[in-house]
Design goal:
Elements (H helix, E strand, L loop, with lengths): L1 H20 L12 E4 L2 E3 L5 E5 L9 E3 L4 E4 L4 E5 L4 E6 L9 E6 L14 E7 L4 E5 L3 E4 L2 E10 L5 H7 L2 E2 L5 E2 L2 E4 L5 E10 L6
Parallel strand pairs: 2-9
Antiparallel strand pairs: 1-3, 3-7, 4-6, 5-8, 6-7, 8-9, 10-12, 11-12, 12-16, 13-14, 15-16
Length: 205
Amino acid sequence: MKNQINLIFLAILSGLFFSCKTETPSVSEFIPYISAYTGGLIYPSSIIQVELVSEQEVEPNTEIKENLFSFSPSVKGKAFWVNKRLIEFVPEDGALKAGQSYKAGFKLGNIISVDKRLKTFQFSFKVTEGDFDIQDEVLDIIDPKLVTATGSIRFANTVKLEQVQKAFSTQTSDKQSLSPVITTTGNPQIFHYSIAGIKRRENRY
């Protein structure tokens, strides 16, 4: 009976030791190997990127047949070498679901030689729930009485300029009705807006 108790005790200690050794490495431990990656809040049409610190002996603009990425929930798509350092995972249309959080794994050890603890780089991101996002820029004060507001409108999907122009109007809190000028940026998901002729007031509004 005594030997049996000792055996169980050793098994528990071994389990504790093993769990400590397999803790997920921190992002900082990957700094010597990974310079940038996709994280935070992204759009349903976004591409997942991992950029390595060192160049690899690969052919740019080629598909990667090896399964380097894993996602939870799963995401279907294809991976490509964009250049000798940058890898992109391009999800299939509709694969990224709005409002969904994802955990991702990148098999770094399949590309370069690293400690076994660092063979898989784990990161996460969340897909934005909204169809678009408006980002304001610093107000442009063109004269003491007037202000111009500028910024960008970012859509989750490709949108035509005519649709954006019809969809947006502007009114200030003191009932000034203004006409925003919306222009393209070269990216069919991002548009620039400019709202001129905003009257300045003594009080904030």
